[in-house]
Amino acid sequence: MTTDRPLRVLLADDEHLIRGALAALLALEEDLVVVAEAASGPEALAMARAHRPDVAVLDLQMPGADGVKVATALRAELPDCRTMIVTSHGRPGHLKRALAAGVRGFVPKTVSARRLAEIIRTVHAGNRYVDPELAADAISAGDSPLTAREAEVLELAADGAPVAEIAERASLSQGTVRNYLSSAASKIGAENRHTAVRLARERGWV
Amino acid sequence: MTTDRPLRVLLADDEHLIRGALAALLALEEDLVVVAEAASGPEALAMARAHRPDVAVLDLQMPGADGVKVATALRAELPDCRTMIVTSHGRPGHLKRALAAGVRGFVPKTVSARRLAEIIRTVHAGNRYVDPELAADAISAGDSPLTAREAEVLELAADGAPVAEIAERASLSQGTVRNYLSSAASKIGAENRHTAVRLARERGWV
DNA sequence: GGCCTGCCATGACGTTTGTCATGAGCAGTG
DNA sequence: CACTGCTCATGACAAACGTCATGGCAGGCC
């Protein structure tokens, strides 16, 4: 384990308080150096392009583009840059999306800074790290039983829109939309589509 | 401004990463000292009883009891302890609840640590501080136009329950429930009760 | 090639809604 | 006291919704 070259980190979090504090704490680690900070998704991308960090630590919820979107873009633009997600609310679905996007680390904000530094090193070494508790949640939540279209229609129904509007936005007939919503709700075990939306959200299926 | 006696601060946040980082940053301020940390509502209360801080900095969302509940309890038990809320997602309703509970500071986590330290001093001096943007949101959201029963029924409708169930839980007839939901939705300006629930939540009316 | 599954649609049916009119009891206010 | 607003209820009607049966059409698999 040579420490000849410091590990360059990009920090992206819209909460200034946390980002600053985090940067200060990570600076205490000998082998880590925070080369850039960002407060939004697009800014994170721009910073990554400019500074080419070894590891990008991304908050899940950021204005502009969320952590997973940023990770996807980074994977395409800077394949050498490892990405990891830090989040407050670890929903199973987020974890899945993140792993699919090539994210190599997924940790809740309940870990300590020291532990985070360790995980950053782990990720940089090419390994993966997923918080055990979040992983357990994801496994217990299981895979989505919904087909692609069911999930799509359910998502459009998320804000309480009437069937007519969903049909228009999905370019489907109203009858088809009703059928999809019906089958989605029965698969999920919900009485109606609204509770179906809620449950699907909780389980990370939308 | 004499610095004879340091300002004793209690820090409560369930996210270890943030709490630790925050403690480190606040420790840099000459006149502040973090005398206790807590990761949950009940723990925050216990710590406050034990250490009697001058100012309690509380996260809004914590397991056990949220920041506002803790502030309410502190107000009763330790009237000399000023309380302030720090939050990621500043909903207008939270602000109102907080102020009603006697909280003297309400800031989003997007502020810098230095700014937070200033606000802690402001609050300790007996003044109030509310983030201007959150205040503007709260004002623009206005007061709830809903009557007590309308709000109650709307809340019961929050999880997508059918009218029959709401009627039973509220001990009302189904027709009455429909009427209340209808009037609530029209007051809010929503197409149906589900969007009404969503909007009311956003504005802090439920 | 058959078979299955997912995708899309239509039509029909009964149920659940949203909406409106209407009314009665009951508080608080000018 | 009259007035207003909230509460609760009923009945009725149209619209929206959930469910089912049915069918065509694509793609993957034995």
From TrEMBL, chains A, B:
PROSITE patterns: HTH_LUXR_2, RESPONSE_REGULATORY
Organism ancestry: Bacteria, Bacillati, Actinomycetota, Actinomycetes, Kitasatosporales
Gene3D superfamilies named among the record's database cross-references: 3.40.50.2300
InterPro entries assigned to the protein according to its UniProt record, in alphabetical order: CheY-like_superfamily, Sig_transdc_resp-reg_C-effctor, Sig_transdc_resp-reg_receiver, Tscrpt_reg_LuxR_C, WalR-like
GO molecular function: DNA binding
Residue ranges constituting the HTH luxR-type domain according to the UniProt record: 139-204
Keyword annotations of the record: DNA-binding, Phosphoprotein
Species of provenance: Streptomyces violaceoruber
Protein name: DNA-binding response regulator
